[in-house]
Design goal:
The protein has 145 residues and is mainly alpha-helical. Helix content is 77%, strand content 0%. It has a single domain, classed as Ribonuclease iii, N-terminal Endonuclease Domain, Chain A (Orthogonal Bundle), CATH 1.10.1520.10. The protein is globular and about 45 Å long. Keywords: Cytoplasm, Endonuclease, Hydrolase, Magnesium, Nuclease, Ribosome biogenesis, RNA-binding, rRNA processing, rRNA-binding.
């Protein structure tokens, strides 16, 4: 998984710090959501031999707003001041539509988590991005034995 992110970085997706800070937090969250979803799908495919429908059901437990909110709360003390500021910036954005299957607070923290992932992706901090996503899997696995 890490290899394709590095390859994207090498193809010019990485932006300057200034450019990324000028991006809308919800735009970063949009990319963060995609990166995290791809990471989780890859993780599940490499650890099981299940049909696509079962993989999808398993993926939901990792990517739903409640799970992402739990992740970001457990990671808070491990995040730098800058990273937590990015989470808060994403969390505080007004959503264009209300969440359908989540509490508003969980949805906001999930948006903050995804904003951080998008930020790390676009700034080319692939190793930090991978560390956070790997820790997120551990958190979910420990909460759902």
């Amino acid at each position: 998984m890490k290899e394709w992110m590095i390859e994207l970085s090498n193809k010019g997706i990485v932006k300057t710090e200034k450019e990324v800070k000028m991006m809308a937090p919800l735009t970063l969250a949009y990319m963060g959501d995609a990166v995290y979803e791809a990471f989780i799908r890859d993780y599940l495919i490499h650890r099981s031999n299940l049909a696509v429908g079962e993989l999808h059901k398993m993926a939901i437990s990792y990517v739903k707003a409640k799970a992402q909110a739990a992740i970001v709360h457990q990671l808070e003390k491990q995040l730098t001041e800058e990273e937590w500021g990015i989470v808060k910036k994403g969390r505080n954005q007004k959503s264009p539509s209300p969440p359908k299957n989540a509490d508003l607070i969980d949805y906001k923290y999930a948006t903050g988590f995804e904003t951080l992932l998008g930020y790390l992706f676009y700034t080319g901090r692939v190793q930090r991005l991978m560390d956070i996503m790997e820790k997120s899997v551990e958190i979910i696995n420990n909460n759902n034995p």
